[in-house]
Automatic annotation (TrEMBL):
The lineage of its organism: Bacteria, Bacillati, Actinomycetota, Thermoleophilia, Solirubrobacterales. PANTHER family: HTH-TYPE TRANSCRIPTIONAL REGULATOR BETI, HTH-TYPE TRANSCRIPTIONAL REGULATOR RUTR. This is Transcriptional regulator TetR family. Keywords: DNA-binding, Transcription, Transcription regulation. GO terms for molecular function: DNA-binding transcription factor activity; transcription cis-regulatory region binding.
Length: 196
């Protein structure tokens, strides 16, 4: 989905017609699956077939591989931001810890996309600036709420926490090890009043 923010990257606009919009969404979903299963060099024609559409439809929506990569990347970032909003109804600690668990998976999957995108754009490109801002706002909101509730240490900053979470995703893909490492980070975030 193309973000509405003025700082958002320039991506192909999702179509307004319902049938074209459905095709756009099918292509994004198929690309996300193909990139997860086959890597970012998945063939575009195979992605179109996976979506049940012709190659011409794919190229009308995404004239280049880079545009498709960026659209999938931004769509995943927006999904993480929406997840933070949806989890905000939970108690602060539960909302934060559940979102950070999702963030580990997100950081693992986005690494391959980002690496491929960096072949065409640099780290300061609008797509990355927008994504960093969206993730930081989502994480800051959940972390701040947990700090206000007194369940997270007041000196924690999302930038630091985010780097730790991303490092877990970079260190291992083993689910048990990810959970153990994340448990250590979460345990370090909890507020414990000084005993005295």
């Amino acid at each position: 989905m193309t973000p509405a923010s003025p700082d958002a990257p320039t991506l192909p606009q999702p179509p307004k017609r319902a049938d074209a919009r459905r095709n756009y969404e099918k292509l994004l979903a198929a690309a996300r699956e193909a990139f997860a299963e086959e890597g970012t060099d998945a063939k575009l024609d195979d992605i179109a077939r996976r979506a049940g559409l012709g190659s011409g439809t794919l190229y009308r929506h995404f004239p280049t591989r880079q545009q498709l990569l960026e659209a999938v990347y931004v769509d995943e970032v927006e999904a993480m931001a929406r997840a933070a909003d949806e989890l905000a109804a939970l108690p602060p600690w539960e909302a934060l810890s559940r979102w950070l668990r999702e963030f580990v998976r997100f950081s693992t999957t986005k690494r391959a996309l980002a690496s491929e995108m960096l072949n065409q754009v640099d780290r300061d490109a609008a797509v990355f600036a927008f994504s960093r801002g969206a993730i930081t706002r989502a994480g800051d909101g959940l972390l701040g709420r947990a700090q206000e509730a007194g369940v997270v240490r007041p000196d924690a900053r999302f930038g630091e926490v985010g780097r730790l979470i991303a490092a877990i995703g970079a260190a291992t893909s083993d689910e048990d090890e990810v959970e153990r490492l994340l448990g250590l980070v979460l345990d370090g975030l909890r507020y414990r009043p000084a005993e005295g």
